[in-house]
Write a structure and sequence with these properties.
The complex is a heterodimer.
Chain A: H1 15-19, H2 36-46, H3 48-65, H4 67-75, E1 87-90, E2 93-96, H5 125-161, H6 163-178, H7 181-194, H8 206-215, H9 217-231, H10 235-242, H11 247-283, H12 295-305, H13 312-339, H14 341-348
Antiparallel strand pairs in A: 1-2
Helix pairs in contact in A: 2-13, 3-5, 3-13, 4-5, 5-6, 5-8, 5-9, 5-11, 5-12, 6-9, 7-8, 8-11, 9-11, 10-11, 11-12, 11-13, 12-13, 13-14
Chain B: H1 2-30, H2 36-41, H3 47-57, H4 63-75, H5 88-123, H6 128-141, H7 145-159, H8 175-208, H9 212-219, H10 224-252, H11 257-262, H12 268-277, H13 281-309, H14 311-315
Chain lengths: 349, 316
């Protein structure tokens, strides 16, 4: 990509070059417009590290979605199938899934038999890792969706109308904010597990998703509200009001589009934290319930049963979780840099 | 200044009341089989006995009177758990030394280390040191504390035998034992915050470099070091200290549940987890109110500190 030399200070590298790239020979003609999203995408694409980790995350998602294929066609064992007294043949030798004193076998690195070892009930760790990934990622995605929708709606509402509604919504959010996230999560999670609201009870994996989605609402509400407070004073909002547009139209077609980059930046951040919180709640017994597999249940089973005898049961799901969350975080960082050109200047300073 | 602090305190006290109501409502109204009278009476109780107990403990009264009575008991230290019939205040007091030791040690570590890391990363922005610190902080914010705790317990405690395997030894009993048992929890809890704080500090220092007051400081001939420490850093510390106040207060109120659980510290956080498991409303409410008080008090201290750092807040 060509970069016009002699940029004015304060312009990000390549910033000017992109917009003015093609067809700017004729004098007096405005350069062809490049939308902010397209510019952001170009900047993101050039960030090799962010793209790499974005790809890693995509890979994890695809592999986890293929869990049934691995389970039925390659490993021939289900995620919840315990086989504590079983044996299998590895390189012509007979191996026990659990040794005589009950220690599960470690990784065999044989794709057909206990590739990543067994857990203390003789279940295949590799199969459970993939199925667990589906659960964890699903919870992360649903929780993020809930947080983003509720946080944005309330934030726009409070910031636009101000007054009493704003005061009530703000203090409600402060209550949730003051409560430590994990404590609030296990409180609501326990109540829902026992009592339940509609389909949300017992071992349904949607319970932790809804709980986590609720816990993180203030993290989106606060910045959105703050931004709406300044946006509503801008001239284009005044102009819309002068034209007689309804409040609803102003909120959806004037204010919301201006919030889009903020919202997009928050998605990976909330998703990473949701997946982490799922693991935490599950470790404390208020998240995903056994025998369902999730990365959280696998780590906590490993911590409770396999230290120090079979540490691979902690290490494998733990590393998988850290890699997935880190990929989202690094990609999210790149996304923020791409959408907010000022941060690009910071790094290249 | 005083008015500023008082107003802030009043808001927080109102917040505290709402938080306690929220907790009470969640457990008392939502739980159908959480009837405390039935729990107290035992499994073989007749309906008449259950009725007697609910009259004696006031469970037959309207819900708002029950709430007020519960709050009265909590603040006079007369609250007893319906499940274990222990005095709740005594139970919290028993867990407090471990939680306070964890909070103070880890709080100091994560504040100081993140200021150091954040400043280094900002000064060396884009260079090698910055990249290493960025990678480290990315790992830090992506690491669940109980997973990192399990790694330390397995490799450092079981394999290398350097630290003990979980538990808590009181300071009065053995200073060395106290320190040895707490090193790993301190590190585990700190890593989470260091990753986040150092990135916030880094970007806020880099933002401040474009500010007018930094240009003025340079123009009057201060050295880069003085500009950094007395102008850039001083202003950039404000968001860090506000963040630290809330997080530190939550850890004191038992917010570090995951770290306390994985290391078996028997602190307030573990008590909170156990009381939720037992549906022990009274204990949980008292812990939540304790968290609220910690947030109010430390929040006020932090506000004063921030106002000291930034005259714009003090004089507004």
């Amino acid at each position: 990509m060509s970069v016009i030399s002699g940029q004015s200070p304060g312009q990000g590298p390549g910033e000017l070059g992109e917009g003015f790239d093609a067809g700017f020979e004729s004098e007096g003609q405005l350069p062809p417009g490049v939308g902010p999203w397209k510019l952001a995408w170009r900047r993101l694409r050039r960030n090799r590290v962010a793209m790499f980790f974005g790809f890693v995350f995509l890979l994890i998602v695809v592999v986890c979605l293929l869990a049934p294929v691995y389970s039925t066609d390659i490993a021939h064992i289900g995620p919840n199938y315990g086989n504590p007294t079983g044996t299998f043949t590895l390189n012509g030798k007979t191996q026990f899934v659990l040794s005589q004193i009950g220690i599960p076998i470690g990784p065999t690195w044989d794709i057909h038999h206990y590739f990543l070892g067994a857990d203390d009930q003789g279940r295949d760790v590799a199969v459970r890792l993939l199925y667990g990934g589906r659960t964890s990622l699903m919870i992360g995605a649903v929780a993020t969706l809930i947080t983003m929708i509720i946080g944005t709606l309330l934030g726009v509402f409070a910031g636009y109308f101000r007054g009493w509604w704003d005061a009530i919504l703000r203090s409600a959010n402060d209550v949730v904010w003051t409560y430590p996230a994990v404590l609030l999560g296990i409180t609501i999670g326990t109540v829902l597990n026992i009592h339940g609201i509609g389909p949300l009870h017992g071992t349904n994996a949607l319970v932790p998703a809804v709980v986590i989605g609720f816990v993180y609402v203030p993290y989106v509400f606060r910045p959105v509200r703050g931004q709406v407070l300044t946006l509503r004073e801008r001239d284009f909002v005044d102009a819309a009001r002068q034209q007689g547009l309804s409040h609803w139209r102003i909120m959806t077609s004037e204010i919301l589009p201006n919030l889009s980059s903020t919202i997009v930046v928050f998605v990976p951040l909330i998703m990473a934290n949701s997946i982490l919180l799922e693991a935490g709640l599950t470790y404390l017994g208020a998240g995903v319930q056994p025998p369902n597999a999730s990365w959280g249940t696998m780590i906590s089973d490993g911590i409770n049963n396999d230290i120090p005898t079979a540490f691979h049961n902690v290490l494998i799901p733990g590393l998988m979780l850290v890699i997935a969350v880190m990929s989202i975080n690094i990609f999210g960082d790149g996304l923020r840099d791409a959408l907010d050109p000022r941060s690009k200047i910071r790094v290249a300073r | 200044m005083l008015r500023f602090v008082v107003r802030r305190m009043l808001v927080m006290v109102a917040l505290l009341i709402v938080i306690s109501m929220f907790t009470f409502a969640m457990f008392v109204l939502l739980l159908p089989n959480g009837n405390p009278a039935a729990l107290l009476a035992g499994r073989l109780a007749t309906p008449a006995e259950i009725h007697l107990i609910s009259v004696r403990y006031g469970f037959d009264k309207p819900i708002y009177i029950q709430y007020i009575d519960t709050m009265k008991n909590i603040f006079t230290g007369q609250a007893y758990s319906y499940q274990s019939s222990f005095n709740v205040l005594d139970e919290i007091r028993a867990g407090m030394p471990a939680t306070l030791s964890l909070a103070i040690g880890a709080g100091l570590i994560w504040l100081l280390v993140s200021i150091l890391f954040g400043t280094i990363a900002a000064v060396r922005a884009g260079k090698y040191a910055d990249r290493v610190l960025t990678v480290l902080s990315m790992i830090g914010v992506s690491m669940p504390p109980f997973f990192f705790g399990a790694i330390l317990i397995y490799y450092v405690a079981y394999k290398a035998n350097i630290i003990p395997i979980g538990g808590y030894v009181p300071f009065s009993q053995s200073v060395g034992g106290w320190f040895g048992h707490l090193v790993a929890p301190w590190i585990t809890l700190s890593i989470l915050f260091i990753g986040f704080y150092s990135r916030v500090l880094r970007s806020s220092i880099l933002d401040s470099i474009n500010e007018d007051y930094v240009r003025t400081a340079r123009a009057k001939g201060l050295s880069e070091r003085q500009v950094l420490i007395r102008h850039s850093l001083r202003n950039s510390l404000i968001p860090i200290i506000s963040l630290w106040g809330l997080d530190f207060a939550q850890v004191i109120g038992g917010g570090a549940i995951l770290t306390e659980t994985v290391y078996n510290l028997h602190g307030v956080g573990e008590l909170a987890r156990d009381s939720i498991g037992r549906l022990d409303t009274i204990t949980l409410m008292e812990i939540v109110i304790l968290t609220g008080i910690a947030v109010v008090v430390i929040g006020a201290i932090v506000d004063v500190l921030v106002a000291y750092l930034d005259p714009r807040i003090r004089l507004a």
